[in-house]
Amino acid sequence: MKRTHTLPLLVPVTLSALALVSAVASAQVSGSAPATSSAATEIESVGLLTGRVVSDGSGAPIAGVLMTVKGNGPDRFTKTDSIGNFAIELPAGTYNIELAHPQFDNGFAVGVQVQSEVEQAATFTMSRGTGETATAATGGNLEEVVVTGAYRAGTVDTERFSENIVDVISAEDFRVTGDSDAVAALARVTGLTIVNDKYVYVRGLGERYSSTTFNGAKLPSPDPIRRVVPMDLFPTGALDAVNVQKTYSPDLPADFSGGAVQLQTRTTPDEPYRRLAVRVETNDQTTGRDAISYDGGGRDWLGSDDGYRDLPSTVQNTNLSSGTPEEIQSAGLAMRRDYPSEMQELPANFGIEAGFGDAFENGFGYLVGAKYENDWAYRDEERRTSGGDGSGGAVARDEIDQARTVNAIDFSGLLNLEYALNDDNTFRSATFLTRSSDKRTIRSIGRLDENDINVADTEFEWEERQLLSQQFSGEHYVSALKDLKIDWQGTWAEATREKPDRRFYRYESVGTAEDGSLIYQFSRTGQSNERSWEDLTDESLEGAINFTLPVTLTASINSDLKAGFAYLDKDRESEFRRFRFQTDFSRNNLEDVLGFTPDVIFSDPYIAPGLWQLIENTQATDNYRAEERNLAYYLMADTQFTDQFRLMIGARYEDSQLETFTFDRLEPTNQIYANLEDEDWLPAVTATWAFTESMQLRAGYSKTLNRPDLRELSPAPFLEPEERYTVIGNPNLVTAELDNYDLRWEWYWSSVDNMQLALFYKEFTNPIESFILFGGNDGGARSFQNATAAENQGVEFQVRSGLGGISDVLVDFFVKVNAAYIDSEVEVPLDAQETTQDRPLEGQSEWVANLQIGYDNPIREIEAALLVNAYDDRINAVGVRGLPDAIEQGVTRIDFNYRQAVNLFGEKFTLQFKGLNLNDPDYEVTRGDVVERAYNLGRTYYFGVSYDF
Fold first, then answer.
1. Strand, coil or helix: what is 809?
2. CB 735 within 8 A of CB 764
3. In which band, very low, low, confident or very high, does the pLDDT at 227 lie, cut at 50, 70 and 90?
4. Distance from chain centroid for Cα 898
5. Which of 377, 626, 628, 657 is the most exposed place for a label (fewest CB within 10 A)?
6. 259-265/210-214 β-pairing
7. How far, in whole angstroms, is CA 883 from its chain's centroid?
8. What is the 3-state secondary structure (H, E, C) of 154-171?
């Protein structure tokens, strides 16, 4: 497979983009404004109203002011943020604006003019406790409205006003990039890379170093070997925004290292909302191809097994190690023994999405959404294993060609309810369900060096992952206590993973036919056939309450004092049972049928005493249960010292206990117990200095933790689903500690255009790393250990700018560039036997970059984007005993997205086209000179239409 060098291709494109940005920034700072489109008089155009609400006495900013904008259609709403700022996108026209806050008299402003494609700034004042309310007759409380520059419709950058260093992806960004799930969207964020199409690496740190919250709550995971939730489970249609917080704050869980990925579901709409969308998708190496697959249950198309793959009750209730011959025969006959593999022409992918919602005058609002997708993927993959060559290199051993067909059926649903009792009390309920089911057929043909044989292996797999979350939350303002804000949430969530009746069987070559082809026969070895049932349940119950008290210290100093409490109770149970048919060929004539298909080999006449006999080979460490308890308190202050300096400082206390019980299913008292208890104080401070009106500097320090996953503490072996290696935990792991240092310079020359340059440094104590096991029957299994220490440091750069400053022709174009350079070093124990003593952290790329060239015309309602994502080489698996590290080669990927609103049959529709993975790069994992894995994903073409009514 040809290796493509992608970095030289990206560099000139990026440098050209930066040159354009420099010219644009100069033009925009000097006051250049774009020309107004001639179509502005034909189609509704928009502008941006920004500003601040302050006290008329002290001039202090007022947070949490509800602003109701009346005029030009239904009422619109916004709220001021923690330092009194607001921003709202409005169609051009004249508006009246009402302001409400529990501690201030209502305000009113009339005749506010919003201009097309212009950003305008306004300052509103409110009086505290005078008993007088401004009215239209008194002229209201609006100071001068000032035009500050051109505005391109889109999301106002909330990163600027956060007390922490945070990167934000909004619903508008999802629409422009065309990303359909959270994992694809996160790949666009500065310093983030995606592994196995599911897991987020922040600043080069593996998924274990990132925490995920869903509406503020930690979620359980359906992944059997990871605590983090796979990001492919979250469709962007259910999300309002994804925030990636890179500096720690005490109101977040302390298990935070690389960053916190904060998922926020869509809120109830302010006006009636109805939407229906469908899409069809093709892939040039999948769609229309004849590929191996198999028939399953009647509800497979729904992503739910109908009982076809259930373990028979006869087998469940029979002790196969001590049962009578008749009982064992009965259990064997009860097993489903059809192996229905077939060649199938793979269809195009299909998806449908619907949503509706509304808000009513009585304070009640709702939002309902659902999405169904049925996708197929096929790939040919070259696989090899490696052995050391005695001089620090690697030599290829086994060579396998693997054909993999996957039918993925995804379903998600969201129900949000909201009730505003009054201006001070709001209650919410959020119900979220997401399911992802994969039907895999894997055919592997090649040579095994150890036994010097050619083999043909077949696997049938069905995997259901589900996450169900129910959250109740509320937000309250207590006027009698100086406008104390209380917000709370209680969340129950359950993640499940079922993998029923995984079937494996092997044929071996026994000779050569006259035409030179190999003759295969069912293998006589004990590994010739395997059946397994896996069941995982991860359930969590979490409650949290936060108190925020705004305090005016002086005329220029305001502070939000925050305190909170959280408790997490999580329970995980994992059950794994293995079976196979076994016989003694020296006592029967079953060799005569080994040339037939498995359904003949294991047919009823051959399931009998002395012939094929069902045995259970579940291992003593195959089953485990685990518990996690975490009690946390925090106290912090977010203080604004004048308009220039802001300081967030605080600390969090956590009392955590992790327990795992690995047990023999047949002998439950035979247990391996692992326990990890921690009590920690975690300080954090972030300072922001706005040294000009458009530039600011942030600096932060924090101490955080990285605890082992529950699965990592259990020695129960597990087959990793993607790369097919065995994973074995280590009960002796301890919690890793991190010291985090951050510095970021930010320049905002408009509401959407900005530039950022960041430096970060992280120092690890006892970082948890995986490594390869040798010896016994593990054959390259992986386990975990604490390294002695590690360092991680780097530079991040990001810029976003419109191109209208170059030419009026480019007024609707913009460019986004972000890149990160990351350097890390691990200090490993002397007895770890790792080949490389001086190496980066596992999974860390030295650099990662994104380029986005976009077109956004709100007048014609056209959006388009060319997207480039690239990352450098990274360690896929650490080598030991002279075997080199396995390196996943860097890849550059190019995508394109186009959306346009059109009138069809007198109705408004939106058409969308996406081209994904257009350059179809080679994916390779190498170890020394050996290519251990190599495959392509093919190019995908997406056609969609949506109808909003």
1. helix
2. no
3. low
4. 24
5. 657
6. parallel
7. 32
8. CCCCHHHHCCCCEEEEEH
- Give the Cα separation of 914 and 272 in Å (integer): 29
Integer Cα distance of 607 and 614 in angstroms: 8
470: its two tokens: 């129910």
Query: Any idea which residue has 């020695």 for tokens?
Result: 715
pLDDT digit string (tens) for 606-619?
999 999 999 998 88
Torsions phi, psi of 732, nearest 5?
-95, 10
Considering only residues 653 and 109, tell me which one the structure prediction assigns the higher pLDDT.
653
For residue 101, give both structure tokens. 């806050």
Residues 6 or more apart whose Cβ sits within 8 Å of residue 514: none
**Cα-flanking dihedrals φ and ψ of residue 452, to 5°?**
55, 50
Please give the structure tokens belonging to residue 807: 């030419």
**What would the two tokens of residue 241 be?**
């925004």
What's the gap between Cα 312 and its chain centre?
36
Structure tokens at 607: 């399931």
Residue at token pair 């350059």:
919
State how far the Cα of 213 lies from the Cα of 242, in Å rounded to an integer: 10
Residues 6+ apart with CB under 8 A from 262: 212, 213, 216, 242, 243, 244, 245
Classify residue 19 by burial, with Cβ atoms within 10 Å: 0-12, 13-18, 19+.
exposed
Neighbours of 16 (CB within 10 A): 12
What are the tokens at 572?
């995980």
Tokens read off for 844: 């860390």
* Contact present, 412 and 367 (Cβ < 8 Å): no
Q: State which amino acid sits at residue 244.
A: V
Burial class from Cβ neighbours inside 10 Å (0-12, 13-18, 19+) for residue 838 reads: exposed
**For the chain, which domains are there?**
46-150 (2.60.40.1120), 158-267 (2.170.130.10), 283-295+340-582+619-948 (2.40.170.20)
At 536-576, the pLDDT tens digits run: 999 999 999 999 999 988 878 889 999 999 999 999 898 88
> Alpha-carbon torsion 663, 664, 665, 669, what sign?
negative
Q: Which two tokens stand for residue 77?
A: 């709403």
Average pLDDT estimate for 380-406: 87
Cβ 703 vs Cβ 739: under 8 Å: yes
Encoded amino acid at 696, one letter? Q
Enter the tokens of residue 384. Answer: 């090899």
Instruction: Give the pairing type, strands 695-706 and 671-689.
Output: antiparallel
Please give the residue that has the higher pLDDT: either 376 or 339.
376
Q: pTM higher than 0.70 for the full model?
A: yes
Which of these, 347, 477, 355, lies nearest to 408 by C-alpha position?
347
> Would the pLDDT of 26 be above 60?
no
Q: Which of 561, 548, 563 is nearest to 647 (CA)?
A: 561
Rounded distance, CA 299 to CA 294, Å? 14
For the segment 474-507, what is each residue's pLDDT rounded down to a tens digit? 999 998 888 899 999 999 999 999 999 999 999 9
Contact present, 670 and 661 (Cβ < 8 Å): no
Q: How far is the C-alpha of 3 from the C-alpha of 1, rounded, in Å?
A: 6
Answer yes or no: are the C-beta atoms of 171 and 89 closer than 8 Å: no
pLDDT above 90 (res 63)? no
Answer for the pair 155, 170: CB distance below 8 angstroms, yes or no.
Answer: yes
Reduced to 3 states (helix: H, G, I; strand: E, B; else coil), residue 948 is strand
For 327, the 3-state DSSP assignment is helix
**Residue 532 exposure: Cα atoms within 13 Å on the Cβ side:** 25
- Helix (H/G/I), strand (E/B), else coil: 894: strand
Sheet holding 166-170, edge to edge: 166-170, 239-245, 259-265, 210-214, 217-218
Cβ(447)–Cβ(330) under 8 Å? no
Q: Give the list of residues 6+ apart from residue 914 with CB closer than 8 angstroms, or none.
A: 178, 895, 896, 897, 898, 940, 941, 942, 944
